Amino acid sequence: MQNRSVTIKDIAKMLNISVATVSRALRDTYDVNAETRQKVLDMARQLNYKPNFNATGLAKGSTHNIGIVLPFITNYYFSTVITGIQEIAYENGFNITLYLTNDSEERELSIIENLSVSSLDGLLVSTSSLSSVHFQELIDMGIPVVFFDRVAKEVVTSKVMQDDFNGAVEATEHLVKNGYRNIAHITGPRGLILTEKRVQGYLSVLEKYQYPVREEWIVYSGFSQESGEGDVNHLLQSADMPDAIFASNDRKAVGAMQALKKRGIAIGSEIGVIGFTNDPISTIISPTLSTIAEPAFDIGKKSCELLLKHITKKNFIPEEVILPCRLIERESTRR
């Protein structure tokens, strides 16, 4: 083998052990026995292995750079999260680099495969992919990864989220208490934890009040305004129309409102609409949009704090943090 082509995967294959074990042995962590470590070191010497990044440097945070992988920056939620991340990063002498996936699984995979790991101490991720293998491989190589908002459930590392379940409960129950009975939910893509949690919260309220659950009133799609408009156009084609719509984010809610306006349907008195985010657009649109405010800034701060702990402490135990949301009532849910 040529020196530059030898990776820890090659060593793992030759010894018939996992990539994670090779990575830990090369970093001399406490959970690899001496015999295995010696075998790894001997094979590394035999193959003339040269690491493509300085694992010791990474553990000490010596590059003082962290990467952020996220779907968008034009989105209010993510721009606010970045502001929170920046505050903690800069306080601790770290620079940040943004990697945008445009909500594409293929682009996310390409970004991770081509990542210059030698220039990063760790990674903050809001994933666009239903697969998590590529992130697990980074962690196995010794690169700290922390997820926020859209997290990978299979990967054991720190994660920071808003309380999607109880936020959805609060949104749906707000509609019930304002007199709405036939409530639809236009939600995000299937497979995302936040989508699942918000659907579960919505369904739990319908069950509590013994309201009908109609599969056709739960519409899965993207998070854009266009998705929201398309979802509502789909809903309005059915014989039984809902009298309220809970949207999984404010952009979708605005799209829903646009669709209703085009059909001459009065928002609030005929069909109520509530969103999730507290995007500034919710106070600009008419009628103003009721919503569930997410703690985006605090999510950014907390996720960065946890990443720095993973970077600086070799055996830091992963934490899962769930921050509370808050109902904001406006005109779109007044009958």
UniProtKB/TrEMBL annotation:
It comes from Niastella yeongjuensis. Residues 6-60 form the HTH lacI-type domain. Gene3D superfamilies: 3.40.50.2300, lambda repressor-like DNA-binding domains (1.10.260.40). This is LacI family transcriptional regulator. It comes from the Bacteria. Keywords: DNA-binding, Transcription, Transcription regulation. Pfam families: LacI, Peripla_BP_1. GO terms for molecular function: DNA-binding transcription factor activity; transcription cis-regulatory region binding.
